[in-house]
Amino acid sequence: MNDFFEIVRLEDKHLASVAELEALCFAHPWTAEGLKTLTGEGGVGFAAVDERGKVISYAGMVIAADTGDITDVATHPDFRRRGISRCVMEELLRYAREKGLISVALDVRVSNSGAIALYEGLGFSIAGKRPRFYRTPPEDAYVMIKQL
């Protein structure tokens, strides 16, 4: 597949495509309606969009005071292991620094070694563990934090 993509800030026009990606990647996906949190006040998202305008990767974050909480990071299975998630996350972190946030946090399955490696490569550290955080399948989550 062609790797042409552009990193853009999420807008309402992207939400149906992001919802499709969510359904493909997660057992309990956000709906397009729920994803509006990322395009409204207090939320932000960035996406890698292909030449047809389809979202192939995205990351979303909600902001409270001076901290960010990353809600989801997803990449279409056909586009994984190509550095696209890293590009999206770098843009999200650039935005967080620009807005003066002091830290960004996220949760990740303890078995998701690929995601953990990505986040550690971006400067996140494991700060704790949430027992049985995920339901399907049941699994603990690491809490990872990056100081900005």
In brief:
With about 150 residues, this protein is of the alpha+beta class.
Spell out the blueprint of helices and strands.
Blueprint: E1 6-9, H1 15-25, H2 32-35, E2 43-49, E3 55-64, E4 67-75, H3 84-98, E5 103-109, H4 113-121, E6 125-135, E7 138-147
Parallel strand pairs: 4-5
Antiparallel strand pairs: 1-2, 2-3, 3-4, 5-7, 6-7
Give your account of this protein's structure.
- By secondary structure, the protein is an alpha+beta fold.
- The chain has one domain: Aminopeptidase (3-Layer(aba) Sandwich), CATH 3.40.630.30.
- The protein is about 25% helix and about 40% strand.
- It has a 7-stranded mixed β-sheet with strand order 1-2-3-4-5-7-6.
- A hairpin with a 2-residue loop joins strand 6 and strand 7.
- The longest helix has 15 residues.
- The radius of gyration is 14 Å and the shape is globular.
- The model has no long low-confidence stretch (mean pLDDT about 95).
